[in-house]
Specification:
It is built from 1 helix and 2 strands; from the N terminus they run H-E-E. A hairpin with a 4-residue loop joins strand 1 and strand 2. Helices cover 47% and strands 29% of the residues. The protein is of the alpha+beta class. Strands 1-2 form a two-stranded antiparallel sheet.
Length: 68
């Protein structure tokens, strides 16, 4: 196993996940705020499910996003 190649591959995947996730979250927030569907709400719960069945990886990450 080439540690450098592994590290770069993981970083590339995580960068893609981070950028895509941020865009999707921002778009969802904009859509809800334009439709006045988040009135008075200053935060919301969010989660990500990370899985790699071939590795036996199944991990959920919970969080909270603050709007103000």
């Amino acid at each position: 196993m080439n540690e450098d190649a592994l590290n770069m591959s993981i970083r590339k995947f995580l960068k893609k996940v981070g950028i895509t996730s941020q865009r999707e979250i921002e778009a969802a927030i904009r859509q809800k705020t334009e439709g006045d569907q988040i009135n008075g709400q200053s935060s919301f719960v969010i989660s990500v499910h990370l899985s790699a069945p071939e590795l036996g990886l199944d991990h959920k990450i919970d969080g909270k996003i603050e709007l103000e």
